[in-house]
C-alpha cells in the first residue's frame, strides 16, 4: 500500500501546533503506518520535496523568507492545511501589525538595549509590512483553528483525509 506523503512546516509561530501533533502519543503509531513524513522540523530534509499529498503549515507569513517558502510549498502540495490560529488568522505574530517594521526593529534591537544595540542585517529575515494568515498569499484547502488545535482534532482530520472522507471535525473550516 502506497503511503501518503505528509509534510509539516513551521513559519512564524511558537511551535505549539507541532507540540500538539506530538501529543497524539500512541495514536501516532497507526497514523505513521499510513503516511510518509517527508519534510518538517523533525525530518532531516533541507529542500521541500515535490509531489507532497498533504502539508500542515503552522504560523503566519511574516517575512519575505516565509512568503518564498509558502509559495514553493503551495506549488508542490496537493492539499494545504493552515494549522492553528497563527496560520488561520495571523494571531500573535499579527500583533505587531500596528507598528511600522522600522519602528518595531528599533524597539526590539536598539531601545533599552545595554550591550551592542543595533538592528541586525544578515541574520534576521526581511520582515513584511504585516504578519498575515496563509490564505492571503496562497490557496488553502482546509483551516484548522486553535491555539494550538487539540491533538485529537488533528488526528481526526488526518484520519478522515487518509480515509478519503470529507473532514468530520466541526472546527475544520474550508479555505
Question: Care to give the gist of this entry?
Answer:
Helix content is 29%, strand content 23%. With 175 residues, it is α/β, with parallel strands linked by helices.
How would you characterize this protein structure?
The chain has helices at residues 16-22, 28-32, 64-76, 85-89, 101-109, 151-162, and strands at residues 4-10, 35-39, 52-58, 61-63, 77-83, 127-132, 142-144, 173-174. It has 175 residues and is of the alpha/beta class. The strands form two sheets. A six-stranded mixed β-sheet has the order 2-1-3-5-7-8. The mean pLDDT is 92.
Describe the structure using short key phrases.
175 residues, 6-stranded mixed β-sheet, elongated, alpha/beta
Amino acid at each position: 500500500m502506497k503511503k501518503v506523503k505528509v509534510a509539516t512546516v513551521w513559519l512564524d509561530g511558537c511551535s505549539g501546533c507541532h507540540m500538539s501533533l506530538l501529543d497524539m502519543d500512541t495514536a501516532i503509531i497507526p497514523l505513521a503506518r499510513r503516511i510518509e513524513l517527508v519534510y518538517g522540523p523533525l525530518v532531516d530534509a533541507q529542500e521541500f520535496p515535490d509531489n507532497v499529498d498533504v502539508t500542515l503549515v503552522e504560523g503566519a507569513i511574516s517575512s519575505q523568507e516565509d512568503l518564498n517558502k509558502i509559495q514553493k510549498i503551495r506549488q508542490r502540495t496537493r492539499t494545504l492545511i493552515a494549522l492553528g490560529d497563527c496560520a488561520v488568522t495571523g494571531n500573535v505574530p499579527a500583533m505587531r501589525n500596528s507598528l511600522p517594521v522600522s519602528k518595531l526593529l528599533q524597539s526590539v534591537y536598539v531601545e533599552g538595549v545595554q550591550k551592542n544595540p543595533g538592528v541586525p542585517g544578515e541574520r534576521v529575515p526581511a520582515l513584511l509590512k504585516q504578519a498575515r494568515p496563509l490564505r492571503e498569499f496562497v490557496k488553502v484547502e482546509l483551516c484548522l483553528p486553535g491555539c494550538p488545535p487539540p491533538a485529537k482534532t488533528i488526528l481526526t482530520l488526518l484520519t478522515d483525509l487518509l480515509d478519503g472522507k470529507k473532514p468530520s471535525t466541526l472546527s475544520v473550516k474550508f479555505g
